[in-house]
From TrEMBL:
This is Putative NAD(P)H-flavin reductase. SUPFAM superfamilies: FMN-dependent nitroreductase-like (SSF55469). Keywords: NADP, Oxidoreductase. Residues 11-194 form the Nitroreductase domain. GO terms for molecular function: oxidoreductase activity. InterPro entries: NfsB-like, Nitroreductase, Nitroreductase-like. It holds the Pfam family Nitroreductase. Belongs to the nitroreductase family.
Length: 219
């Protein structure tokens, strides 16, 4: 298949070794941030926070979060151009949702007279996924993974390499980035940058996916 989307998706891959001398341009970082912001989410909940680690100090702090586990991902903390922490809100309340509905109205997307209908009606989706302690992190985390997928595709189109990392330590990230996370939980991060030529064993390998008929059925 020769479509440019398929070409980009075949070219993107999980980088295993970054060239520490190469940095993503400020223009591309702007595109990446805006693509993240534009990610879709159930009921437009946007129950997330994305933290872009760019400075040496931020990278050192992220490096420190690998003290206890998943050290195989640790080199990316300093060698990749940037890392993005993708964090979900474990207790996404109706009060927080009201801010999103505010944006629905101020943006012109929702007529003002439908404000309460959206706030009360749509939030039912969140309520249906909320337990007796107010925890709805399974649902909000699912939204964060939509942003991750959107980000992976955006990076593929920009020709920027990346490494999704569930191999992170949510507890240490939670304490070392406590202030910035503001109650959000980070269980997945994305290193981004440019691979080290000749030293990344994963670069240039064929895609290893299930056969189309095994995963997709058209009725
Ligand atoms: C949610 C998620 C978590 C992942 N965690 C890691 C990780 O911690 N370290 C790593 O090297 N690769 C990680 N990967 C990369 C996958 O192994 C990789 O995407 C998969 O093998 C497909 O290969 P490709 O990305 O090169 O196409 C992760 C991928 C995803 C989507």
């Amino acid at each position: 298949m020769t479509h440019p989307i398929i070409k980009d998706l075949n070219t993107r891959y999980t980088a295993k070794k970054y060239d520490a001398t190469k940095r993503i341009s400020a223009d591309d970082i702007q595109v990446i941030k805006e693509a993240l912001r534009l990610s879709a989410s159930s009921i437009n909940s946007q129950p997330w926070k994305f933290i872009v680690l760019e400075s040496d100090d931020a990278k050192q702090r992220f490096h420190d979060t690998f003290a206890n586990k998943h050290q195989f991902n640790q080199p990316h903390a300093k060698e990749a151009s940037h890392t993005i922490l993708l964090a979900y809100d474990p207790k996404f309340t109706k009060e927080k949702y009201a801010k999103r509905v505010d944006a629905e109205v101020t943006s012109g997307h929702l007529p003002e007279d439908r404000y309460n209908m959206m706030l009360d009606g749509a939030y039912g989706f969140a309520e249906a996924n909320t337990d007796e302690n107010g925890f709805n992190g399974n649902w909000t985390k699912a939204q964060v993974y939509i942003a991750l997928g959107n980000l992976l595709h955006t990076l593929a189109r920009l020709g920027i390499d990346s490494t999704p990392m569930e191999g992170v330590d949510p507890e240490l990230i939670g304490s070392i980035f406590e202030k910035e996370l503001a109650g959000h939980v980070c269980e997945v991060a994305l290193a981004i940058g440019y691979h080290q030529d000749g030293e990344d064993y994963n670069h240039g390998l064929p895609k290893a996916r299930m056969h189309m008929d095994d995963v997709i059925e058209v009725l």
